[in-house]
Amino acid sequence: MLNKLTFTQKQSELMGLLKSGKLHRLNLLEGSVRSGKTWISLILWAAWVSQRPTDHAYMMCAKTLQTLKRNCLMPLQDLVGINHFTFSLSTKEGKLFGRKILLEGANDERSENKIRGLTLGGAYCDELTLFPQPFFAMLLSRLSVSGAKLIATTNPDVPTHWLKKEYIDKKDVDMLTIKFLIDDNTTLPKDYIASIKKEYTGVFYERFIRGCWVAAQGVCYPQFADDPARYIIDTPPDDIMFVTIGGDFGGNNSAHTLNATGYLRGFKSIVTLDEYYRKETITPQQLETDFCNFIEGVCRRWKCTDVYLDSAEQLLIKGVRLAAQKRGIKVIIHNARKGSINGRILFYNRLIAADRYKIVSCCKHTIEAFQTAIWTPDTTVEKRLDDGSINIDSLDAQEYSTEKYMSRLIDAERRS
Ligand SMILES: Nc1ncnc2c1ncn2[C@@H]1O[C@H](COP(=O)(O)OP(=O)(O)OP(=O)(O)O)[C@@H](O)[C@H]1O
Ligand SMILES: [Mg+2]
Questions:
Q1: Shortest-distance atom of ligand 1 to CA 7
Q2: 379 pLDDT exceeds 80?
Q3: Which of 13, 53, 127, 378 is deepest in the core (most CB within 10 A)?
Q4: Of 61, 32, 26, residue with least CA distance to 154
């Protein structure tokens, strides 16, 4: 089955290194999005494992088992066939060409304990910059069998990232790094590549298209900050399918916020339709009344069934839930997912770059927040500044409202 596949030139070069025995102990495929890294890394991994002893254990990992399944295990099964690769997430084990493959998620600092004490013949990691460093250090110490190798993929991150500083840039690490660029992926249609390139601007273009390890500096939403008028509309559009609400609870000099987001037909764009912002100290009862008034107001104007509130405040969430129920407001109040903040920033930048984000002019606090948010200066970790000087609360509420639909919105762009 591997014989039927066609490689891009870059991918052929990599497979050539395997054939001529030129792989290193650590092998990292890094670079742009959609450049064919994961696809070829799976073939390389399968081809390499199939030549290795059957009595060793091997490991495949990603940030979570779910992402491992979606990005690697399913595609690997498609590539080599179900006769050569089977897996089970519940037992966290697979079989690849008769070799035992352990499956693991590297989602937090404690995950290193899960692999302590293992002896591994090889390891595969997808999206390596997302791993906690202690997990990776532990994984390398487990590759103790003679000839053991690591095959990994990643997009670039900040130049101060542990993977760059401690491994890629270190001369004494036995590591091969190969850069893949989106233009190298000749299997993708040219207009698709052109549309992906348009989704990224500024630091994200440098990183995800040009494959450079660069730090984000200055404003978080440069296109919005440069020309806010382009994204502000006076009246809500007519073709809104439905609305979701996100909310953040204040305290300690931060504000209580709610943002209502409308989704346009076919998920072609989103609009912030209305906002609530209150910074002064209020009683829980007042908060419940305010939140219910806002939610009710939104439900009167649009179809809205789901509200996502800051999950750190369970008592307040319960209070709002009960108050909404008493008033007969028919919405489900969920805990906000609160995924990666940088992921959400990238998401809004992509929508802004593609002209798919608009905001109604009455949402003054959110408009100002998008204009003024900046990256924390002089730090090794890339982080939006959150020291009370900038209104992060409206951005949190905005982001909570859309977290569930982020991949749907990105996929909609891809399909159009
Ligand atoms: N040689 C090939 N033949 C057919 N399809 C390919 C080939 N190489 C890559 N692809 C396809 O191109 C797309 C992008 O490849 P892949 O997912 O490997 O990119 P990536 O570099 O890992 O991207 P990201 O950084 O976004 O994870 C996928 O749909 C993949 O199936
Ligand atoms: Mg990939």
A1: 1
A2: no
A3: 127
A4: 32
Contact 145, 121 (CB under 8 A): yes
pLDDT in tens, 34-70: 999 999 999 999 999 999 999 999 999 999 999 999 9
Cα–Cα distance between 157 and 130 in angstroms, integer? 9
Percent of the chain residues past pLDDT 90, beyond the cut: 89
39 lines ligand 1 (CB under 6 A): yes
pTM above 0.85, yes or no: no
State the closest ligand 1 atom to the C-alpha of 182, by its place in the atom list counted from 1.
Answer: 21
* Residues at Cβ < 5 Å from ligand 2 ion: 38
Question: Is residue 109 pLDDT above 80, yes or no?
Answer: no
Which domains are delineated in the chain? 2-188 (3.40.50.300), 222-415 (3.30.420.280)
Nearest residue (by CA) to ligand 1, atom 11, is: 36
User: What pLDDT, on the 0 to 100 scale, is given for residue 111?
Assistant: 87
36 lines ligand 1 (CB under 6 A): yes
Would you say 292 and 326 are in contact if contact means Cβ atoms under 8 Å apart?
Answer: no
